[in-house]
Automatic annotation (TrEMBL):
<keyword id="KW-0175">Coiled coil</keyword>
<feature type="region of interest" description="Disordered">
    <location>
        <begin position="368"/>
        <end position="408"/>
    </location>
</feature>
<dbReference type="Pfam" id="PF00817">
    <property type="entry name" value="IMS"/>
</dbReference>
<dbReference type="Pfam" id="PF21999">
    <property type="entry name" value="IMS_HHH_1"/>
</dbReference>
<dbReference type="InterPro" id="IPR043128">
    <property type="entry name" value="Rev_trsase/Diguanyl_cyclase"/>
</dbReference>
<protein>
    <submittedName>
        <fullName>DNA polymerase iota</fullName>
    </submittedName>
</protein>
<dbReference type="GO" id="GO:0006281">
    <property type="term" value="P:DNA repair"/>
</dbReference>
<dbReference type="InterPro" id="IPR053848">
    <property type="entry name" value="IMS_HHH_1"/>
</dbReference>
<dbReference type="GO" id="GO:0003887">
    <property type="term" value="F:DNA-directed DNA polymerase activity"/>
</dbReference>
<feature type="coiled-coil region">
    <location>
        <begin position="22"/>
        <end position="49"/>
    </location>
</feature>
<dbReference type="GO" id="GO:0019985">
    <property type="term" value="P:translesion synthesis"/>
</dbReference>
<keyword id="KW-0237">DNA synthesis</keyword>
<feature type="domain" description="UmuC">
    <location>
        <begin position="85"/>
        <end position="299"/>
    </location>
</feature>
<feature type="compositionally biased region" description="Basic residues">
    <location>
        <begin position="383"/>
        <end position="401"/>
    </location>
</feature>
<dbReference type="InterPro" id="IPR043502">
    <property type="entry name" value="DNA/RNA_pol_sf"/>
</dbReference>
<dbReference type="InterPro" id="IPR001126">
    <property type="entry name" value="UmuC"/>
</dbReference>
Amino acid sequence: MGTKAFNSKVLKEESRPSIVQRMENQERQKKFEQKQKEVEKEIRQEQREALKQGIRPKFVTNKEKSLRMAEDEWALIPDQHQRTIVHIDVDCFYAQVEMVRDPSLRDKPLGIKQKNLMVTSNYVARSMGVKKSMWIKDAVKILPNLVFVDGSDLTHYRQFSTEISAVAQSFTPNVERLGLDENYVDITDIVGDYISPEYSAIEGHVFGDKEEDRKVLGDPCGCGCLQRLTAGSHLAKKIRQQILETTGITCCAGVAHNKLLAKLVSGYYKPNQQTVVFPWQAHDVMESLKQARSIPGIGSTTFKILEDLNISTVQELQNASLSTLHTRFDEETSKRLKDLSYGIDEGLVRKSGKPQSIGLEDAFKKTSKQKSWDLTSQTHQPAKGRLKQKVKERKPQRLKPKALLNLM
DNA sequence: ATGGGTCCT
DNA sequence: AGGACCC
């Protein structure tokens, strides 16, 4: 609980360098950002041109960017990859929760089932050849002594999930939940506390972890992202440690200057490990994906359209011309898709608040074309009851189940 | 796959 | 209200 371990490591006030340069003058700040955008647009345009000619666009450092902006006074603020983002991803979440609740399951191969599906399994099971999501009957074929726990009641998972987010929130309020087992944490505002010689080595893996990467790392950018992300790796470690201490749950983390890269990289070394990626490695990260579909933000519908356009790999998306994309997507989306393919993502970490809705859906077969459902009919009563129950559990006294039955 | 979720039109 | 995305 609390942040004791964290605070004890915090550096003395005067040795703490300030990271996010606060501009006193709003006007100046605005102009700077505007100029910055122009230059970035220019650069992106150039990179696309380069691609059209079959040349691989090179990473443009912030030093170079500042130089380009040098005719203006705003060029003096060199902060480019200003943010530091951590993506936290719990290892086989449901299975871990069950193992914490019943430690005797720890060393057994464990599968979590919902209906006929094994939705996840622990690492013991995985090491014995059981895949992530399989039909129960297939899983049992591979591993007859697989132990199953029913995971269709999500209440415990929700409890652990909010506890995990709460740990992250004890570091900074800027936490975005994604499903039950993932969190984005924007640590930009606190990462400065971890920039110091004490923390100058990178904690955990660097993307493309080879011995060289650790030593040869110069500072090709110069905006401070090297230091911030390095510090971020220590903060990520702290967060993971604290999650483990308070909940008994292990997780992976990815550290990057944007959400996309942080997420892509967090699962790179599993389980219970973490990975940092630097801006100049964005291309390598993206190249490590094959299908454009595996870019978060490109879902099945978008991917189908891309396939129509004969674009299915990340590289093909990188190479696609904006005008081609524009035939099927609006301008914003086209630009966004191309950005994603390069590992560019300006998306903000948005604070997750209280859940916006509590829902319950039953899938039932259509028997015939039906215009309206009879809500008073018996078939709906069970669902109605369960929903009431759910609301009761999760909203102890507030909110009456009044406008809740919004069927259709 | 299924059953929650969120955000954007 | 529907459709896109996410796990």
